[in-house]
Design brief:
about 180 residues; mainly alpha; AhpD-like; 2 domains; globular
Length: about 180
């Protein structure tokens, strides 16, 4: 079985070295998943451009989508990273677990968003009409819908990169949803 190594700054292209330097300045480290993208001369820059693009969703709303999608796709790396980021965006542990389950009893609008993100991911875009209707009734627009679908795609890419490479998780490990609900 192939083992994927996490490249270091010395192992990546000059362009990716500059991105590593910027990530180190901004985050204090280069997350292993981002470093793994740098195995390609272009993927890291392309991914970060996509992930950091303007959107109609707030940072908190983005974390709702990231957590729901990563749970459906069973990506421990992204669940761990977005648990930490979710806390930085004001969610507590119980709320993060709910969001991972695709719901938010503490906020009707976020509940509609979490349900939509989960449904889109589970059904590969064949969204249930009642979930979509609930999303619009909660106050979201068609523009928000397109941004949500884009974010589902963005997160799915990272989920697949980790699920395929299985590089080490360098965030505190998120608890299993099954263990916390049981």
């Amino acid at each position: 079985m192939k083992t994927f190594n996490v490249p270091t700054r010395d192992n990546v292209s000059e362009n990716n070295q500059a991105i590593f330097d910027n990530l180190n300045k901004a985050l204090g480290f280069v997350p292993n998943l981002y470093a793994t993208y740098a195995n390609s001369d272009t993927a890291l820059e392309n991914y970060l451009t996509f992930a950091n693009a303007k959107t109609s969703l707030s940072a908190k709303e983005k974390e709702v989508v990231n957590l729901a999608v990563s749970q459906v796709n069973n990506c421990i790396y992204c669940l761990s990273a977005h648990t930490a980021i979710g806390k930085m965006n004001g969610f507590n542990d119980a709320q993060i677990l709910e969001l991972r389950a695709g719901k938010a009893s503490f906020d009707n609008k976020l509940d509609a968003l979490a349900k939509l993100a989960k449904n889109i991911t589970e059904n590969r875009g064949n969204t249930d009409q009642d979930v979509l209707d609930n999303y619009f009734e909660a106050g979201y627009t068609e523009g928000n819908l397109i941004d949500t679908i884009s974010l589902v795609g963005d997160k799915t890419i990272s989920n697949y990169v980790h699920s395929t490479t299985k590089v080490p998780v360098d965030f505190p490990i998120a608890p299993s949803l099954e263990e916390t609900v049981a």
